[in-house]
Prior knowledge:
Order of helices and strands: HEEEEHEEHH
CATH architecture: Alpha-Beta Complex
Number of domains: 1
Strand content: 25-35%
Number of strands: 6
Structural class: alpha+beta
Radius of gyration: 14 Å
Strand order of the largest sheet: 1-2-3-4-6-5
Distance between the termini: 25 Å
Helix content: 25-40%
Amino acid sequence: MITMSKACADPRRERLTDICLSFPEAVCEACGHRGEHVAYRVRKKIFAYYLHDHHADGKICIAAKVAPGDNTALVAAQPRRFYMPAYIASRGWVALRLDAGKIDWAEVKELVRGSYRLTAPKRLLDIAEIG
């Protein structure tokens, strides 16, 4: 489990961490120069990020990998909630804001599940029966 500074303690981050760590072999690590971000990995591959004011954009979000073209579709359909995260959007990632109204945690879990499925080895998915 990650160690969080008092400045990084956020119930949204804690809940997202609980969701991400519920998947087989998932681990997390604090990143960013103040440990304000978290990378969630499965077998050394990142499947989600918690980003807090990434490059001073003022946003708190989860970034996850999605199927090709889904990031563009999500941003076009709901631009207040979804956006293209810097540096990784071109590789099929989308960001869902956790600071823009009520959070639908079922939606967050589905986004994370989809990203995990795109990232984890097939053998691990078969063993875990990730739906």
